[in-house]
Amino acid sequence: MTAIPNRGPESATATAKSSAPQWVRTSLLDDSEGNQFKAIFVKVPNVSDYIASGEEPALFAASDGNRMILVSGRGEVYLQSNLSANIRENKWPELKPVESNLTYFFDGKLYKVYKKGQPNIGWFSVKGVLLHKGEVFLSYSRKHGEACWNTGILKGLIIGDKIEFSDFWGNAECAKEDALEFNANQSGGAMVYIGADHVLFAEGDYRQTSLSQDSDSIFGKILSIEGLGSYQTTKILAKGLRNPQGMVKVQNEIFITDQGPIYNRPSGPKGGDEVNIYDLNVVGNSQDVNFGWPIASDGVLYDTNFRADASLYESHEKFGFTEPAIYYVPSIATSSITSVDFKVNGKEVLAIGALAGKSIHFVTKSGENKLEPVSNLDLKSSVRTVSKGPDGCILASLDTSVALICKVE
Question: Residues near 339 by Cβ (< 8 Å), separated by ≥ 6?
Answer without folding.
Answer: 248, 250, 350, 351, 388
